Structures are given as C-alpha cells and as structure tokens.
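Per reviewer request, we include the raw input and output of the structure prediction for the construct analysed in the revised manuscript.
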Amino acid sequence: MAGCTSATSQVHASPKPSPTVLAAPSAAPDPTPAPDPTHVFVIVLENRSYGQVVGSGYIAQLGQQYAIATNYRGVYHPSLPNYLAMTSGSTWGVADDGWHSLPAGGLGSQLTTAGIEWRAYMEGMTNGCYQNGNGYALKHNPFAYYGGTCPSEVVPFTKFATDMAGAVPRFVWITPDLCHDGHDCPNSTVNAWLSQTVPMILASDAWQDNGVLFITWDEGEDSANSVLTLVIHPDPLRHQSALAYNHYSLLATIEDVLGVQRLGAAAQATPMNDLMAAVAPVPLKNKT
C-alpha cells in the first residue's frame, strides 16, 4: 500500500527522543466472546473536555438519540499516550508526542493474528504514514508506532466512502485531520464533519446489523481530564452512564465485542456493558 512506508524514511515535525518502553502488555486469559458477528467503528477527536462538547450541535443530537458516558476520562497528556492506551492498554511510558519505536503488537496486530479484518482511515495522509502534513499528524496514528512499521491496513481516508459501500471491515478506526478533529478548528467544524461522516456509518448494513460506533476525544482540557464518549448502536437500553470509564474501558469493550483477549490495562478495566445493552426486540405473537 503506497500510503504506508517503513520507518526508515520518517520525517517528523518533532524530535525523536529515546523511548521509554515498558514490558509488552499481556492479555487477559478469559476474553468475553462476541455472541454474533459485530462491526465496531471508532472516531477519535481532539482536545475538548466533556462540558465543552456535550451540548454542541450535531454532537448533542447524537447524545440525545444514543448513549453517552458522563464520567469518562483520558488517561494522560498530551495526545499520543492516550492513543496508545486506546490501542494497546498501555501508554508505554510515553509522555510526549514525539516518535517512539515501540515493540510490535497493539490492537491492529492482535486483530490480524485473529483473522479479523480491520482498517484505520487517516484523513489527510497522502505521502505515507510517517509524513506529517496536509492535516495529517503521525501522533494521531497509533498503529504506526508498534514495531516501527505501518500496517497495510492503515489507509488514507479517501478510501472510506468506497469501502463503506462495499465489504466493511469488522473493525474500523477513523482519525480526522487536524481541523476536523477539533485540534485546530472550532466545534462547529467538528460538528459539520461528523454530520457528513456519521450518517454514512449509520446507513451501512455493518452498523445496522448489531454494529456500534464509538466517538471519543483523546484528552480533556479540565483538571479531571474529562472527555465525552458516545456509544452509538441501534436501540440503546440506557442513554447515559455515570460509571467511571476511561480509554482502557473503551479498549476492553472493543476487544470483548470482537472476541479477542484484552491487552494491558484493559484486562482490569470495566467495559461499558451498560451502554452497550440494547432494547430487547418484541417477540412476534403467534397467529391463532
């Protein structure tokens, strides 16, 4: 895939400090299997606290119709450690947004090993995974850090609409560009982008057939590091949960749904089962 290159041709806006690497996250021994084939979609946005977005435009509409976690926290600052937490169950001791060549692994590798199709769509990525520019930022692409190479499943967002009209991978990750994710632009811009992108997901058979879309923010701007997380699936039983969740909870939920073992801190995290519950269908009455 032309969009992904090896780490030998990296160009970064930030320097390459020596990484602080922890032991590779281990997996929980007894994952919860997914009862039915299920598609999982994830959109990660940037740098807003819960209170800054919960009542904002299209985001508020989604929150009213579907489900929200009202007591959800990022795990660190700045961006990169949160993205790593969401995809491996560890921050790996990273405390900046620079380049760190981490051991191979993470959610993408886990899904590939399990034979589960996945894709990560990076908006603005036009010249390989390791080339910043055009709104694309390497620090918002966690899959490029594990093993120091970029998986072929990481592709430009320009492929998204075509893929959604065809065979949709079971796991879909979306990183908007630096404007559409709210990093460099206001909530109104984020809402406009979501209002174009989310309906494509919700119109797909992949989502309508027991699928789920998670929309979260990497980190909050308040002292609590609070972020809004939306859990969007058909017929939610509960529309709000005040249980304490974080990015490890999100990873645990994703891995449980896809039927793979939980990585790192996700093994001890509380999954968002209350927000994943759906209203039971009304049984058809037998004709007499």
